[in-house]
Amino acid sequence: MSPFLSAYFSRLGWTGTPDVSLHTLRELHIHHNGAIPFENLDVLLPREIHLDDRTLEEKLIHGRRGGYCFEQNGLLERALREIGFPCAAFWGAWCWPIRRICRRVPIGCCWWRWRGNAGLPTLVSAARP
Question: What InterPro entries does the record point to (predicted)?
Answer without folding.
Answer: Arylamine_N-AcTrfase (IPR001447), Papain-like_cys_pep_sf (IPR038765)
